[in-house]
Amino acid sequence: MQLGLVGLGRMGGNMRERLRRAGHEVVGYAHDPKVSDVASIQELVGKLAAPRVVWVMVPADVTDSVIEELAGVMAQGDIIIDGGNSRFSNDKPRAERLGKRGIGYVDCGVSGGVWGIEYGYGLMVGGADEHVQRCMPIFEALKPEGPYGFVHAGGVGAGHYAKMVHNGIEYGLMHAYAEGYELMRASEYIDDVPGVIKSWREGTVVKSWLLDLLDRALEEDPELAGVRGYAEDTGEGRWTVEEAIRLAVPLNVIADSLFARFASRQEDSPAMKAVAALRFQFGGHAVKKD
């Protein structure tokens, strides 16, 4: 199958390679001419036989402009797939705009990071049945082998919604491992914290790919001395908590893990300054001065 792929970064470039290994013809475009197959989006579309499928794999803040540029040179019967970390609420308006031109739209949440080229990508797809079915050869090549790793989650927006929840869960899992790691480091009982983490990789109920990656990080740097305790968030955790508020669903773990990331960015927490000041005011407790 032919596919146009816009965005050849850490994930997009690897996806192009995995698809080519599976025998698909992929025409990729990126701003960097060293990795791009064509000089422009217009040239990319021109190299594809109608009806075309083009996958957009770019940062969320430029996705709309890229899709609009594509729509200007694509034709009725073509399909655009957005595989980026777009907010789910943007999908239906996009689909409606494209639908007026006769262009189909599929949203696809993608998990797998830099490892997906070898092990496959988890794909969570939203869109009309007819559009998803046309794209199935591409999805089959990208997903892991076997029965898992792909879902047609529902209509337009369902794919990105599922990916949002996936990433919210990821926040909570990562933070639970991190808290366990910190507790063992603080304990006088544990002499080999990396060894404990490694031992959990098999035969335990907490084994997971994230645990494997923590073990890998500790092998490279047993004290994590080269890593600053600062964690960004790319939006999905916030959106998950916003949805929890909208639907009155208690997401205690996910919300706490998101707020922990916010706390990691504060060199000296203003809130904790206020707590220290209050403790001094009501009880005369010692305050550490800068």
UniProtKB/TrEMBL annotation:
Domain 6-phosphogluconate dehydrogenase C-terminal: 159-286
Gene Ontology BP annotations: D-gluconate metabolic process; pentose-phosphate shunt
Entry keyword annotation includes Oxidoreductase: yes
Superkingdom assignment: Bacteria
Molecular function in Gene Ontology: NADP binding; phosphogluconate dehydrogenase (decarboxylating) activity
SUPFAM superfamilies: 6-phosphogluconate dehydrogenase C-terminal domain-like (SSF48179), NAD(P)-binding Rossmann-fold domains (SSF51735)
SMART domains: 6PGD
Protein keywords: Gluconate utilization, Oxidoreductase
Family: Belongs to the 6-phosphogluconate dehydrogenase family.
Protein name (record): 6-phosphogluconate dehydrogenase
Species for this entry: Planosporangium flavigriseum
Lineage of origin: Bacteria, Bacillati, Actinomycetota, Actinomycetes, Micromonosporales
